[in-house]
Design brief:
The chain is of the alpha/beta class. The protein is built from seven helices and 33 strands. Bound molecules: alpha-D-glucopyranuronic acid (GCU).
Length: 618
């Protein structure tokens, strides 16, 4: 117990430093279930490629000046007299929908990478004078500066995770103006870095809401099953507020007849330790979610939490101590409905229903945290989830700021989803080149993750290579393979490496007693293009590649699942082949218009004949 308390304390220190570095506050847990006021809808916007609204002509940030003057867009200034010089006016500008990317909403912003300013005016009356109010962004890509009524709230870096700021002392009853500067310029030292094979959608890409809380409220909690004792519910909880110390907190799980009182320590925290022999475990067949109610003197919050253990034993992946085979598919967060950055529950529902129709019990959410609807729905639908940090290809491994940025994004997605039963794997990275700096970077991230969440598995999408110089024998020769719980790699034999026939010549030599997953394989096909199976871009080529790949990887003894690339064709600025790609990566099993290609049925058939519980060879 002492160890748990010390660990909690050290952790709070660590987290607050990281948050401080990125100018934001501790993320609030389970905002999804809190009563909130939405700020979604039309916002006025100003396109500002020269960041004229942020810097003066000496390129000094206005926000660092005592009197920034009317030129600073965050002041939302208006011309007050005929001689007054104000060279912008949000209220006379066009408007754009939030949440949403600007690329697919405005033709002139389709390829735009730079700064756009957003303004939302609103009135707000608190229901109780002592209450506090926060503004919560589910995500905004990439670098976001937020101001309320002319004052800086803070900054967030990273396009795929939530952040919140307290606005209690700045809020007015009437005519509040929230100004948000969003800059999606790609940078070498950023996470991700300059090149990605997905569209760099810019904007306030997910919901924005106001949260009103009591003065002291439940800020953060982690409630999960002890991976080593499935009769024990464990975790931590932290209050925020004046009366957070020695405060009574009751946690109840009515369906388990559990009502337990706890008391916070001087940091407003306590460790959770609840035993029960009657837990109905969350599983693929029965994704059972318990109502968990947390009550304090002033605050009450409810969550739907599934209790399950996820562990490995040798080359087995054990869900509730039973071996499981992960029948998966990779997914990008692109809306099958408006073909831009996905964000809505309808988007999530469509994507996960297609995955279930394919016969999947597992999805790899690539290459960055997707919106919370995806994991909340996966909890309900009984689908296992791999979540990934956007450490993609070759980032700046030696840059400490890049590391802190990657760690902060990972910390935020863990904080958002640590109570989700469906989420079983935290992926540190995708296709990163081995080097001492990279190995150290990823190992440090893994250590951080294991400390923050000891209940889930760690992996990364690695790359395979020749075994002892023999190109026909494939292996994993990567020091980071020692660190991960699940050994996962991408392979494109038959597409980037030879033709489909090559699959028949390949064997494997993977010397790890760990579960092996193939996080990507696939081939491009234009929906409706038919012909020879050895002619690229035909549906028959993709179909043939799936047939031969499934046979080829079946040879891997430790194989415990895979997530082919990819469920749906997706936008990529790297894909410019006319009449075939036209800005789309065509490796989807479904076209961007929702049409299923032949290979969709090849994989569906394979999954229908494969049980989740591993009775087969693997
Ligand atoms: C890579 C990468 C994906 C990319 C895919 C492809 O492996 O991880 O992001 O889209 O291959 O080339 O289609």
């Amino acid at each position: 117990m002492m160890h748990m308390k010390l660990r909690t304390f050290l952790f709070i220190i660590l987290i607050s430093c990281t948050h401080f570095l990125f100018g934001q506050e501790q993320l609030m847990t389970n905002v999804y279930n809190r009563e909130t006021t939405s700020l979604n809808g039309y916002w006025n916007y100003i396109i500002d490629p020269y960041e004229n609204g942020f810097y003066n002509y000496r390129y000094e940030p206005f926000e660092n000046q005592e009197n920034p003057g009317k030129g600073a867009f965050f002041t939302n200034s208006k011309r007050e007299s005929k001689s007054d010089l104000v060279e912008y006016d949000f209220d006379k500008m066009d408007s754009i929908l939030v949440p949403g990317d600007w690329n697919t909403q405005k033709e002139n912003l389709f390829y735009y990478e730079g700064t756009v300013w957003f303004k939302k005016s609103f009135n707000y009356s608190k229901s109780k004078n002592t209450n506090r109010v926060f503004v919560y962004f589910e995500a905004s890509n990439y670098e976001t500066d937020v101001y309320l009524n002319g004052k800086k709230l803070g900054k967030h870096i990273g396009g795929f995770t939530p952040f919140n700021f307290e606005i209690t002392n700045l809020l007015k009853e009437k005519d509040n103006f929230l100004i948000v500067k969003v800059d999606n310029k790609r940078k070498k030292d950023a996470v991700p870095t300059l090149n990605t094979d997905w569209w760099n959608y810019g904007g306030i890409t997910r919901d924005v809401k106001l949260i009103e809380t009591s003065e002291t409220f439940v800020e953060d909690y982690f409630i999960q099953l002890d991976p080593n004792n499935n009769n024990r519910i464990m975790g931590e909880l932290t209050l925020n507020g004046e009366s957070k110390k020695q405060e009574k907190v009751q946690i109840s799980i009515p369906e388990l007849n559990i009502v337990k009182d706890f008391e916070t320590d001087k940091n407003g925290s306590f460790s959770i330790d609840i035993n029960s022999k009657n837990i109905k475990y969350w599983s693929l067949e029965d994704p059972y979610l318990y109502n968990v109610i947390i009550k304090t003197e002033e605050d009450k919050i409810t969550d739907q939490i599934g209790f399950r253990t996820i562990t490995t034993k040798g080359s087995q992946i054990l869900l509730n101590e039973k071996s499981v085979f992960l029948k998966g598919i990779s997914i990008h967060e692109e809306s099958p409905i408006n073909k831009g950055r996905g964000h809505s529950i309808e988007d999530a529902k469509q994507l996960l229903e297609w995955a279930q129709d394919l016969g999947c019990n597992y999805v790899r959410l690539a290459h960055y945290p997707h919106n919370e609807h995806m994991v909340r729905l996966a909890d309900k639908m009984g689908i296992l989830v791999w979540e990934e940090n956007p450490v993609y290809w070759t980032i700046s491994w030696d840059n400490e700021q890049t590391y802190l940025n990657a760690k902060n994004q990972l910390s935020e997605v863990i904080d958002r989803d640590k109570n989700r039963a469906s989420v079983i794997i935290w992926s540190m990275a995708n296709e990163t080149p081995t080097s001492d700096a990279r190995n150290a970077f990823l190992t440090k991230l893994s250590t951080f993750t294991r400390q923050k969440d000891p209940t889930r598995l760690i992996s990364a999408a690695l790359e395979q290579s020749d075994y002892q110089g023999n190109p026909l024998v494939r292996t994993i020769d990567d020091p980071f393979a020692e660190v991960v719980d699940i050994l996962s790699f991408n392979q494109y034999i038959g597409w980037y490496d030879g033709g489909v026939e090559k699959c028949k010549t390949i064997s494997w030599n993977i010397e790890y007693d760990k579960p092996v997953m193939i996080s990507e394989f696939g081939a491009g096909a234009k929906y409706g293009l038919h012909g020879e199976k050895d002619t690229r871009w035909n549906e028959e080529y993709q179909e043939y590649l799936y047939e031969e790949t499934l046979k080829m990887i079946d040879q891997i003894d430790q194989l415990k699942g895979f997530s082919p690339w990819i469920l749906v064709d997706f936008r990529s600025p790297r894909r410019v082949l006319p009449e075939i790609q036209d800005g789309w990566n065509r490796k989807g099993l479904i076209s961007e218009d929702g049409k299923k290609k032949k290979a969709f049925f090849t994989l569906k058939n394979y999954y229908e004949n494969k049980t989740s519980s591993n009775q087969n060879k693997h």
